[in-house]
Amino acid sequence: MRYSIRTAALAGVSAIAFGAAGAAAQNLTIGVGSPVTSLDPHYHQLSPNNAVSDMIFEKLIDTDAAARNIPGLATEWRAVGPTVWEFKLRPGVRFHNGNPFTAEDVAFTIQRLPNVPNSPSSYAAYARPIVRMEIVDPLTIRFHTAAPYPLLPLDMTNVRILDAETHATATTEQFNAGTMAIGTGPFRVQSHRSGDRIEFERNAAYWGTAPAFQRVSYRMITNDASRTASLLSGDLDFIDQVPTTDLARLRADQRLALSETVGLRLIFLGLDHLRAAGENSPHITDNDGRPLGRNPLKDVRVRRALSMAIDRGAITSRIMEGAATPSGQFLPPGTFSHVADVPAPAFDPDGARRLLAEAGYPNGFRIQLNSPNDRYINDARIAQAIGAMWTRIGVRTTVEAQTWSIFVNRAARAEYSAHLIGWGSNPDGSHPLRNIMATVSSERGWGASNRGRYSNTEVDELLSQALVELDEPRREQILIRAQRMAHEDVAVIPLHIQTNIWAMRRGLTHTPRVDELTRAQDVRPAAAR
Amino acid sequence: MSVYLLRRLIQAVGVVLAMSLIVFVGVFAIGDPVEILISPDADQMERERAIKALGLDLPLWQQYGIFLGKALQGDLGRSFVFNEPALTLIMQRMPATLELALAATFGAILIGLPLGLYAGLRPNSVGSKAIMAGSILGFSLPTFWVGLMLIMVFAVQLGWLPSTGRGETVTILGTRWSFFTMDGLAHMVMPALNLALFKISLVIRLTRAGVRETMLMDYVKFARAKGLSPFRVTFVHVFKNILIPVVTVTGLEFGSTIAFSVVTESIFAWPGMGKLIIDSINVLDRPVIVAYLMIIVLMFITINLIVDLTYSVLDPRVRLEGK
Predict the structure, then answer these.
(1) Whether residues A247 and A287 fall in one domain
(2) pLDDT value at position A6?
(3) Fewest CB atoms within 10 Å of the CB: A156, A236, B96, B202?
(4) Which segments constitute the Solute-binding protein family domain (chain A) (predicted)?
(5) pLDDT at B93
(6) In chain B, whose CA is at the least distance from the CA of A220?
(7) Closest to A122 (Cβ–Cβ): which among B40, B49, B82?
């Protein structure tokens, strides 16, 4: 009841409709839009799962709201040799069941990553570069890698640490039942009803900043309108994924407050680079519907024209209601390896027409733009708008929007000429480069999401340099050069970076996260500040 | 009778088998679940591992064979998403859906029958006309809209009822039921009403039509001529004869309420099977989809059987020969 008197005094003025602020300061009810599928922190890599895992478990390296690395269960870390990373562990940390946290637990966790049965999307990749672990003392561990590996700290921000003793034989089902959901994090699981709600209580013995709420109810409400209505009715204190159509109304509501930040998810268009210049692209024809006999998208002037034809400002202000920022690259300003001199391409339909004519298409051509209709915020409507903008420069565009499960499979087989898709980046240029703009290669594990099959040997070369460069400033410079090169070549057409928005009753304050995670420790009573 | 039941059983097995095959092939045709489930930044090695872990690397006929073999032992496979047996997942969520469907169906009968009877007996009164006009609304308003309106009015504006979710539950025989707590009932009122609205209208219309038709029958006239009280004429002679279509439709409606209350369950965040199936379809969680549809097929067959048996009770002329 630390906050109750001050909260009551302030809330009495600002939050009349919500009444009892003293009791509310102890309990928090959160409504999230995406269901959590598992409480096993190593079973299914999915943002909602990671958010809930962050409340129960902790990582060696944590990330702050802007996704910068900060000490977590490790107090410091450094490369002690070209292929050796050393982590100093935080002393005095205990798991929810009282077991002490030591280097043994870290080693156990890394060993468990590739050994979670039936995982549909595992965390094994984070353990793969580590060839050997060396426990120097109970609070020091060294990871040996086969080659220099600068991304190891970034990888460790995704690995939640378990207890070697408690979890030796723990199964995913036991985690889901709540009995094994035991970590070092700020909250303990009380009960879990899959697809419905998770009840938490404060971990009184937490080593870090104490969470503000005694109890947290984490409810999954997938329907956007219902989630908003439940906030308005007072059944929920806090919601995520605020629908853009409700933004204006919620902003005007005196009983509510919003918190928002530019995120790390870029919406962009992928283009067909797979078909050679002399081949037909699957969904491109001439103006009479006959095969064109060549793939115009192989010409950088055509790609640039298509990018210049898009009025990004109109899309972000009208369709996205301001909840997005036009962008010409994957990372927003202020992140590691953001390219300062690659702005969002300016809207220039006349220039686009000139470029098309120069490339030999004065009368344009026909193209089909494919898009999901249930995946990204306003995805199908954005595709419709782009279709109209392209048609205006003479590239007659039809839009086909489908459900994600069908769309993503066809996109993965490179069946589309142009497709709208999104990418949530790690704040490191190597992440989008390696997955989306690098030449597809199973041996290197590159280009797994390169659905347009872009390939540029110079970009590849820079990326392979960056992936073994341990000097951070130098690595950043290499990544900036590689990204600038790919974007000047219009590898993809970036559109905008989404803004992450949360809404809450007045009287609460929230630290918005660029990584979209909705976690109870980021919410506090406003008066406490 | 036993021959009849046996024949129905054999039919049921055939339908369930056909259903499982159709769903298997259908999900396969839509695409690869791994592409949807996997983290976007997983590399090719991780993708192959996941495909193997979920058994999707085998040819389709082999996958189906393995599924059938396990199904015979009562194992319908493990969910790709939750790594729990599909059957367990469905059974965990069935009580929530079942109680909602029961509440909606009984509500529909309790409200629909008397109103329909009244409208049939006094077709020209103002009340009857209002009832019939209302039933048209019940038919034609889309469920999602009515659901949202209910929330806006009763939860947001008036604050009488909780907006979403399932309330407090009482555990009986290992499953959770919200019938027995006030909080549980309060949470159930709006979703149940939302589901019942269409059914109420249906029952009203069926009952009214039946009453209007039956009132003109000779045996009703004869009963009246015999000097029986209007009450006895209505509730013994008329009522029993109009029940057959009402029972048929209510039975089938009950089935489809259990199986396909997806919209209502999503809007009210009701943790039932409908939400599970729609989430599973979105991520192509094949074991859950297959198990769910097999259970639904069995359920419909059972309901149809019960409806047929009810006929023979209501109308002695119906004989269960299964021809």
Answers:
(1) no
(2) 40
(3) B202
(4) 70-432
(5) 87
(6) B269
(7) B49
Residues of A in contact with B36 (CB under 8 A): 404-405, 408-409
- When divided into structural domains, chain B yields a total of 2
Q: What share of chain A is helix, strand, coil (3-state, %, to 5)?
A: 30, 25, 45
pLDDT in tens, A391-401: 999 999 999 99
Non-local CB neighbours of A496 within 8 Å, separated by 6+ positions: A266, A267, A312, A315, A316, A320, A324, A325, A326, A327, A344
Which segments of A174-214 are extended strands (E)?
Answer: 187-193, 197-202
Range with the largest mean pLDDT of A521-525, B73-77, B122-126, B236-240:
A521-525
pLDDT of residue B237: 78
Q: What is the ipTM score, two decimals?
A: 0.82
Same domain, A369 and A225: no
Q: In terms of domains, do B112 and B47 share one? A: no
pLDDT, tens only, A107-138 = 999 999 999 888 888 898 899 999 999 999 99
Question: Nearest C-alpha of chain B: how many angstroms from A494?
Answer: 18
Which residue range forms the structural domain that includes residue B291? 86-314
Tell me the pTM.
0.86
Tell me the pLDDT band of B223, cut-offs 50, 70 and 90. Answer: confident
pLDDT top residue among B216 and B176: B216
Nearest to B47 among A424, A431, A448 (CB): A448
Q: Are B271 and A193 inside 8 Å of each other by CB?
A: yes
Q: Give the tens place of pLDDT for each residue, A2-21.
A: 434 444 333 333 333 344 44
For A323-349, b where at least 16 C-beta lie within 10 A, e where not — what string?
bbbbbbbbbbeebbbbbeebebbebbb
Which of B31, B42, B271 is the closest to A409 by Cβ? B31
A226 and B151 in contact by Cβ < 8 A? yes
Best of B44, B83, B161 to disrupt the A interface (most A CBs within 10 Å) is: B83
Q: Which residues of A touch B267 (CB under 8 A)?
A: 223, 225-226
d(CA A500, CA B199) in angstroms, rounded, equals 41
Return the pLDDT at B312: 76
